[in-house]
Amino acid sequence: MTTKPEIDFPEGPAPTELVIQDLVVGDGDEAKPGDLVDVHYVGVSYDTGDEFDSSWNRGESISFPLRGLIQGWQDGIPGMRVGGRRQLIIPPEQAYGPAGSGHQLSGKTLIFVIDLLGTR
């Protein structure tokens, strides 16, 4: 995948559980809990559809260890294969906590579309 994904505005109330949807199933190595992953991603707010972060806008992918990320990524990326694109809808409890937790995204349900470029 060489293009930034478009995220369709969701309908209905935000889910209260993590929602994992493979948009493209990869055929490379499978990500495992605790792996270092290389990804491209875009994140938007479920309520407004406003984009709050995107590696695409910086023009380069980013690598990080899964164990250092929000719980929704720790739970939602393992099992994904390199070359795949996956959408995660992450409730506040698995993102940045309830409203008032001190992060600008606290209390918000988040949607990420993640392209897995590598894992090790």
Provide keyphrases for this structure:
120 residues; mainly beta; Chitinase A, domain 3; 6-stranded antiparallel β-sheet; 8% helix; EC 5.2.1.8; PPIase_dom_sf; PPIase_FKBP_dom; peptidyl-prolyl cis-trans isomerase activity
Structure write-up:
- The protein is mainly beta.
- It has a single domain (19-119), classed as Chitinase A, domain 3 (Roll).
- The protein contains two helices and six strands.
- It has helices at residues 55-58, 71-76; strands at 19-24, 36-45, 51-54, 62-65, 85-90, 110-119.
- Strands 1, 2, 3, 4, 5 and 6 form a six-stranded antiparallel beta sheet that branches.
- It starts with 18 loop residues before the first strand and ends with a strand.
Summarize the structure.
Keywords: Isomerase, Rotamase. The chain is mostly beta strands.
